[in-house]
Amino acid sequence: MSPRPTDVEVGTELPEQTSRVTRADLVRYAGASGDLNVIHWNERVARAVGLPGVIAHGMLTAGLAVRAVTAWAGDPGAVVDYSVRFSRPVVVPDDDLGAELTVRGRVAALLEDGRVRVDLTVTSGGDKVLSLARAVVALG
Asked: Which positions fall inside the MaoC-like domain (predicted)?
């Protein structure tokens, strides 16, 4: 059941969400998105350009992060605005576990017309990977 505007206040926390991203996920995302950049699948090239290893696509990371908001809202269409800045790459090791992405959210502002602003904290391996991650959600 999605939250109603009367049930939400500044400081309301969203349920924490954890996702895993594996190299196989990167291959599938590359095929679906058309983003075939070598840094998303080739360790040698990623390191040669100064990265710590193969990294997840930024849009994949942003998409996984907003799922915490859509799950809380109960409707992906309730997200009327979403923005992030990329602060660190999500390094995806070549193993069966991949990288873990943890998303925490809290209502930061009550806006007009039953909308709220949700601020997200998104980490991987203990590092904050997205900055200024914010979503505006129309509730009710």
From this structure: 16-107
Nearest CA to 122 out of 109, 135, 111, 112 is that of 135
- The predicted pLDDT at position 64 comes to 97
pLDDT recorded at residue 3: 79
Q: Which residue has the tokens 């939250």?
A: 3
pLDDT tens, position by position, 120-135: 999 999 999 999 999 9
Q: Where are the domains of the chain?
A: 5-21+56-138
Question: Helix 58-73 crosses helix 23-33 at what angle (to 10 degrees)?
Answer: 90
Strands 17-21 and 99-110: antiparallel
Please indicate, yes or no, whether the overall pTM of this predicted structure exceeds 0.85: yes
DSSP summary character for residue 91: B
Q: What is the DSSP letter of 38?
A: G
CA–CA separation, 61 and 44 (whole Å): 22
User: For domain 5-21+56-138, is the CATH number 1.10.274.10?
Assistant: no
